């Protein structure tokens, strides 16, 4: 559990808390005279606040509410005294020992329920999950925001205490100046009524009171400066974590766009392959009809150069689309790192270099069949890669 920031507070900061809660000066004096630090305050129970420091029940509730907002739990109540020991009962008569049972073979140890390889794989997965959880940024941002809020509350309390101390120091300075000059009707009247000795006593005590007020003011100013530095540091940490979160969102968005674009390119490649397969099958059917009509075998029939060029263009477009999709996938893997599921490395390498072998040539039915099989095989590979791409883009 994270330690409460209250435990690092000094006695002065705890005293300033009473001013923030608008408690009487007697309460602040009790905290100051007892040098109650933040760690001491966190350990005090409600009874301690009432009996030792003289707080009322309403004041105790205000202090407890402020401590709860600072993340300090109420201390456990003291445990009740232990019950007196009961004398042990008389031990019963010990029966005669029974005959020892026959010694048999030791029980067989149960075989483990899991294979060692499975246990090792489970340990590896657990370590990977812990690593991925450590990469989560949202909890860090929330923690930094909470730290900023705590620093702001401490700074506000210190600034309010500084204002009180500044007013007290100004009042002491004014009183001291008036006593030293001895001017004014009130001063003359005081001398007449109380005598010169009383005025001298007040004049002697005035520098001491002024020095105490100025010391209190200096301490509160130092506390406020420390609070401002802590707030600036907390805000810098929050800005750093928010920047890292923004960069993570941008990286994830870029990776997702690459995967979505790769899936679209694979869809286009499949469409080109389907069109090429249709053109090839239509050519085979036309050749078989010509053979049946004229008796000329498929090998001896003239090739349709226009159809071959169209089919070559379809295959080339499909090949380019798959290669581009593979490059986008590799770039997305470099961006997303361990958060991206596995892609078939063999298919990815083949896609980067081009999947299709152009077997268009002047031949018979056998070469037409080989060409159709090559296109069908390429379609199967692209469909497999597309399934993986869609899983990545939707995951």
UniProtKB/TrEMBL annotation:
SUPFAM superfamilies: SAM/Pointed domain (SSF47769). GO terms for molecular function: methyltransferase activity. It holds the Pfam family SAM_2. The lineage of its organism: Eukaryota, Viridiplantae, Chlorophyta, core chlorophytes, Trebouxiophyceae. PROSITE patterns: SAM_DOMAIN. Gene3D superfamilies: Transcription Factor, Ets-1 (1.10.150.50). Residues 9-62 form the SAM domain. This is Lysine-specific demethylase JMJ16 isoform D. InterPro entries: SAM, SAM/pointed_sf.
């Amino acid at each position: 559990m994270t330690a409460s920031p209250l435990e690092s507070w000094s006695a002065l900061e705890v005293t300033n808390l009473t001013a923030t809660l608008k408690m009487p000066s007697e309460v602040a004096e009790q905290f100051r005279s007892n040098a109650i630090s933040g760690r001491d305050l966190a350990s005090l129970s409600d009874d301690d606040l009432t009996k030792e420091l003289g707080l009322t029940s309403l004041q105790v509730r205000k202090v407890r509410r402020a401590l709860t907002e600072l993340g300090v739990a109420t201390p456990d109540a003291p445990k009740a005294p232990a019950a007196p020991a009961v004398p042990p009962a008389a031990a019963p008569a010990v029966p005669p020992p029974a005959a020892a049972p026959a010694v048999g073979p030791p029980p067989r140890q149960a075989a483990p329920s899991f294979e060692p390889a499975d246990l090792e794989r489970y340990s590896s997965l657990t370590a990977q999950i812990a690593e991925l959880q450590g990469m989560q940024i949202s909890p860090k941002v929330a923690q930094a925001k909470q730290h900023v809020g705590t620093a702001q509350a401490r700074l506000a309390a210190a600034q309010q205490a500084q204002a009180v101390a500044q007013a007290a120091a100004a009042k002491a300075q004014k009183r001291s100046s008036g006593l030293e000059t001895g001017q004014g009707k009130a001063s003359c009247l005081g001398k007449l009524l109380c005598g010169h000795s009383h005025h001298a006593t007040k004049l002697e005590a005035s520098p001491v009171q002024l020095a105490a007020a100025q010391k209190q003011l200096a301490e509160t100013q130092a506390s406020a400066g420390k609070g401002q530095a802590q707030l600036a540091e907390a805000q810098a940490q929050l800005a750093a974590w928010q920047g890292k979160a923004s960069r993570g969102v941008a990286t994830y968005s870029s990776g997702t766009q690459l995967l979505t674009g790769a899936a679209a390119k694979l869809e286009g490649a499949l469409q080109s392959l389907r069109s090429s397969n249709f053109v090839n099958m239509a050519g085979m059917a036309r050749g078989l009809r010509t053979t049946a009509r004229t008796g000329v075998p498929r090998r001896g029939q003239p090739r349709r150069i226009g159809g071959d060029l169209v089919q070559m263009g379809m295959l080339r477009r499909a090949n380019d689309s798959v290669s581009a999709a593979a490059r986008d996938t590799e770039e997305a893997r470099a961006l997303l790192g361990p958060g991206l599921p596995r892609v078939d490395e063999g298919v990815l390498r083949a896609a980067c270099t081009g999947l299709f072998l152009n077997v268009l040539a002047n031949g018979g039915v056998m070469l037409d069949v080989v060409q159709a099989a090559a296109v069908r095989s390429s379609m199967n590979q692209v469909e497999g890669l597309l399934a993986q791409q869609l899983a990545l883009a939707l995951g």
